[in-house]
Amino acid sequence: MIKDVAFGQYYPVASFVHKMDPRAKILYLTAYIVLIFIVKNFYGFAVCAAFLALAVIFSRVPILKVLRSVRAIIFIIIVTFLINLFLHREDQDVVIFNWWIFTITYGSLRFALFMALRLVMLILGSSILTLTTTPVSLTDGIESLMSPLKIVRFPVHELALVMSIALRFIPTLMEETERIISAQKARGADFESGNLVSRVKALIPILIPLIISAFRRADELGDAMEARCYTGSKVRTKYKKLKLGVNDVIALFFVLAAFAGVIVLNVYTTAII
Amino acid sequence: MDVVARELTYHYNKGAKFAVLALDDVSLNIAEGEFFGVIGHTGSGKSTFIQHLNALIPVEKGSLIVGSYDLSKRDKKTKKSLPEVRKKVGMVFQYPEYQLFAETVYDDVAFGIKNFYKSADKSIIDQKVRKAIETVGLNYDEIKGKSPFTLSGGQKRRVAIAGVIAVEPEILVLDEPCAGLDPQGKTKLWKLLHDIHKTTAKTVIIVSHDMNDVAEQCSKAAMFDNGKIVAVGTPKELFSNVKLIENAGLEVPVTCYLTDELKELVDIDSDFKTSSFAKAFADAVKNR
Amino acid sequence: MLAINIDNVSFKYDDEKRFAVENVSLSVEEGEVVAVVGANASGKSTLAKLINGLIAPLSGKVEVFGNDTSDAKKLFDIRKSCGIVFQNPDNQMVASIVEDDVVFGPENIGVPREEIKKRIDFALGATGTEAFRTQMASRLSGGQKQRVAIAGVLAIMPRILILDESTSMLDPRGREEVMSVVKALNKEKMTVIVITHYMDEVVGCDKVFVMGQGRLLFGGTPKELFADSALIEKAGLELPVPAKIAVELRKSGVDVGLPLTKEELKEKLWTLLQGN
Q1: How far apart are CA B129 and CA C64, in angstroms?
Q2: Which of A77, A273, B226, B234 is at a distance of 20 to 30 A from C249, taking alpha carbons?
Q3: How far is B281 from chain A (nearest CA, A)?
Q4: Conformational region of residue C222, where left means phi above 0, alpha means psi within -120 to 50, and beta covers everything else
Q5: Residue of C232, C238, C273 to mutate, interface with B, max B Cβ within 10 Å
């Protein structure tokens, strides 16, 4: 069964961004997120967008694939947009539209767009990380960045393994869900009509088999891991050593440039928030 | 109910870069009353094809008529008739026991009945559930109150099949019904499927990997390869061309292998069932 | 040398009344290919878990190359020397990318980095999966996935390989891929235990054990097993297809004995026709 699963699935090509150290990518993403939260106007977003565009180009991931990640949270974006559109108020504002309790002003429109854009930029940036980094190296990166916590006996390795396995099972469980939905549809299940209560009830024939299957898989995976000598002990070695490379240094320059750009713009242009 | 497919074409992920052509210009008739085999290796398009039969996959191009329903149409009337189509074309997926969900065997088997016969009263539902459970060879009174998850693997599969035949479909489609069963479980299931064919469903359509089984059990079969149908016919017609079977990436039934290997010495004329092959061989030896 | 020695072993799962395995004794020589058959829930898979030390016997003794599986200190060595490939390839992979998954075992047993690389090369090579090294496992076919699962076990360098119904979810092509890998490994002295429902996988084995309701019903060669029609019936087994044909032939008055492979049957029929 060939199924393109939505958000965040690793896209296997060899590219500049793919070759970067996952730790660098995680840190740069964090920096980028800080950036889109300190941006004060649309000019700043232009800088972020330019940075993002460069990242997409050098990741060799088709732009449509990157954009598709937005679809996963489109609902949240729309809701946020609408809430801001109708509820945001600014001093000395120009009303564009007014009906019953709904009022849109020039300021609220601008603000709502701004916040929606921020969410879109956030998800696009994050999806570049997951699209260019395999779950394992992502968790390796997180494990390595969190390793100082080992001193306080925080189970960093276990946490990383759990994350990696969770990511590994996303496509499997998605496929399974689809199969169960088809099977129950064939038995006349109706997921599209009825009121809220009956719709929620209609989910039971999907959720129960799915949960049971997840438990069965977990059980079998546990046996398989144990049979492959997993004990979580300290003898464990690590095959892949993370190493910072030229790519990471080059990318750092772009991150710094974006920061400089945003700060300059924040100082010299008018803020809208 | 006959199935008539004409130039059926279907892509997964249509429009995307990774679009996959799953069905390529498939035309096929399955007449009412057949015990029909759908064969081909994994990814040959056979599963995609059968999911068209009860509109789980919409027709992308070409036409598909099942009984009096034209599934290629997309108007409101066709959409409204979907539940009817799904009622008349029962579909048993691979490892159907993984779709059991209810607290009791009774509730699970009744699920389809309640969905399709919305106005049925309790006594009718009772009756249909009992009949389905007994048809699959289980003891109704003993098993109806049990949780399906406490049953053995073979029993679970029977319960799952009961849930589909309880709706009394005219066409019963099964995807690899024997997968994972032990030899005796397999033999019993084939017998059960023939029983259902005689009593409940007029047409039975079975997806199978096992060519020996298809030669032994089916009245007719269609061979898929690469999204296309490469051959249709009775096992006798289908398996007489060894090259064709091999090219489709399938194993050749043993009877058909022997017929082919021995053809220089003797002409064995059989329909490739083991018993008729043996008789034909014995006759050929006598007549030499 | 004895690879596996099971001596009067019984085992019961906590939540079940019946013994899953009861008073079973059997042994496997190093380098042998052994089949274990029997109906569903006859105790076959429990046997595999007992050998690998995933579960310990309630009574009796399981030894793998002389190491007792009840000895907690030996358990790690036992698991290293005895790998299991399970039924569902999807449920035994910990990582999304083939190479990352194969690495899991060697990392667990503390193999140094340089050595791991060699082991990956070996494991992928032996299973013919080099081409998938950096691919997503979820995009592979069933047979390919299961070969990757074998590679993941091979990277630990076991001396015994147990296939616990590893081909039951595969199509004939996938089954053949997996079985030919197994045959090649056995040529290199790997001891193999094949737990299966497919009688044609039994035919080529050195020995076959039949389980029924937790008990060992038979131990011997495939030829001996298939000659015993009462046992076949009792254990819920069947004859391989060529043997079924031979039985039908006998009913029609043609006696060719009980050949187990199609090639053997063909030879018999060929000779019979030429002598005619």
Answers
A1: 51
A2: B234
A3: 43
A4: alpha
A5: C273
Tokens of B170: 């005219």
Q: pLDDT tens, A146-163?
A: 888 888 888 888 888 888
Same domain, C31 and C128: yes
Dihedral sign, Cα of residue A13, residue A15, residue A20, residue A23: negative
Q: Which residues between 42 and 61 in chain B have a beta carbon less than 8 angstroms from any beta carbon of chain C?
A: 42-43
Q: Which amino acid is at C91?
A: N
Question: Do C111 and C137 sit in the same domain of this protein?
Answer: yes
**What residues of chain C lie within 8 A of the CB of A229, using their CB?**
76, 79-80, 105, 108-109, 156
In this structure, the answer to whether residues C255 and C213 fall within a common structural domain is no
Determine the pLDDT at residue A3. Answer: 41
Residues C38 and C49 in one domain: yes
Residue with tokens 């030390």: C53
pLDDT (0 to 100) of residue B79:
81
- Reported as a single tens digit per residue, the pLDDT across C164-182 is 999 998 888 889 999 999 9
Residue of C nearest to A1 (CA): C139
Lay out the sheet containing C21-29: strands in order across.
Answer: C21-29, C2-11, C59-64, C67-68
What are A59-102's pLDDT values in tens digits?
Answer: 999 998 888 888 878 889 999 999 999 888 877 778 888 888 88
Task: Identify the closest residue of chain C to A219 by CA–CA distance.
Answer: C91
Region at B118 (left for phi over 0; alpha for psi -120 to 50; beta for the rest) = alpha
Q: What is the pTM of this model?
A: 0.85
Contact C266 B250 (CB under 8 A): no
Flag whether residue A240 sits within 8 Å of chain C, measured between CB atoms. yes
Cβ proximity of B37 and B90 under 8 Å? no
Tokens coding B1: 């109910």
Q: Do A168 and C153 make contact, defined as CB atoms within 8 angstroms?
A: no
Structure tokens at B256: 């058909």
**Closest chain A residue to C84 measured between Cα atoms?**
A227
Q: Token pair for residue A35? A: 């950036």
C107 and C190 in a single domain? The answer is yes
Lowest mean pLDDT among A195-204, B45-54, B242-251, C262-271: A195-204
% of residues, chain C, pLDDT over 70: 100
Instruction: Domains for chain B: give ranges and CATH numbers.
Output: 3-252 (3.40.50.300), 253-288 (no CATH)
Show the domain range for C263.
Answer: 239-276
pLDDT score for A6: 44
Enumerate the domain spans of chain A: 22-169+240-268
Q: How far apart are CA A85 and CA A113, in angstroms?
A: 8
Do C78 and C98 belong to one domain? yes
Maximum alpha-carbon separation in chain C: 67
Q: What residues of C are in contact with residue B254 (Cβ under 8 Å)? A: 241-242, 245, 262, 265
Which amino acid is it at B147? Answer: S
Edge-to-edge order in the sheet of strand B20-30: B20-30, B3-12, B61-66, B69-70
Q: Could you tell me if C224 and C244 lie in one domain?
A: no
> What tens digit of pLDDT does each residue of B1-17 get?
999 999 999 998 876 66
Show which of residues 21-80 on chain C sit within 8 Å of chain B, judged by CB atoms: 38-41
Evaluate the CA torsion angle A47, A139, C143, B186 in order and state its sign.
negative
Any chains having at least 3 CB pairs less than 8 A from chain C are: A, B
ipTM: 0.90
Return the biggest CA–CA distance within chain A. 70
Instruction: Judge: B265–C273 Cβ closer than 8 Å, yes or no.
Output: yes
